[in-house]
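Thought: the user wants the 3D structure for the chain below. I'll pass the sequence to the structure tool as-is, report back what it returns, then summarize two notable features.
Action: structure_tool
Action Input:
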Amino acid sequence: MHLVTLKDWSTADINDTVDRSLAIKRNSSAYANTMSGQTLAMLFQKTSTRTRCAGEIGMTQLGGHAMYMDWRNTNFGLADLGDEVRVLSRYADLLMVRFIENTDVERAAEVSEVPLMNGCCNRYHPMQALADLMTIKEACGRLEGIRLTYVGVMNNVCNSLIAAGYKVGMHVTTVAPEINPAAEDHELYAAAQSAGLMERSDDLRMAVERCDVVYTDTWIDMEYFTDPAYSEEKERRIRLFKPYQLNYGLLEGLDLRIMHCLPAHRGYEIEGEMLDDPRSVIFAQAENRLHGQKALMLKLAGR
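Observation:
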């Protein structure tokens, strides 16, 4: 069993992993040594904070061993991807890959002889979505019937929220003036809309007024702040997306939870004060990446 996208997982598998995540958070000591003797190999083509830390620390807390590999310091960029993954899967008990292209994640899953986790690609971020579901259930007490509004660019995080919501009965409204072309998944959107669990809206205020959870993600890439070559694109995005910022004026008086997968650009997609607002569960959401990844590793390892 792999986790490439939550589209391939059953409702029971998702709910089981979410519930296990909550159980681990409540009593982490009960799960010590459950992965004793097991090795997680982590191959990252992209930088990471939460995914890497949750993988390494989580595996250690479960009694196993995690090995981090930067793509640039291996032969993965020189040799056939399938050949290298086949070899790596004969060394480790679990693989976690954080690749740029979804097609590379799919290729790795095809040839891996052990369970593989997608730690983020240009199309999906399923591990983030599992932790998000955990956070929502922790904060709201349920998943079915929850209304979530996603604000910003439709991207890999948004796709995985839609896929997760579709499976557990959570309704997702997207308020997105732009779709990342590399992430577009018409099949997913059609399935969720057909089930009555996804809709698109241009009315931000109405969407947040009727939701239980409002969620945003960055719409300015990190390199846009440091590389002058991106200055024009940065300004275009600011003009397009600034009206969709989560701020006090928009959310004043609303009874909802505020989420962001981090890293956040304060003053852009979200007003800085909103991260520490009493309604914010953003830092609990970040913490839950650890508990969620521990539950996922146990699930895939059959422990």
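Final Answer: Structure generated. The mean pLDDT is 95. The domain at 6-124+289-298 is CATH 3.40.50.1370 (Rossmann fold).
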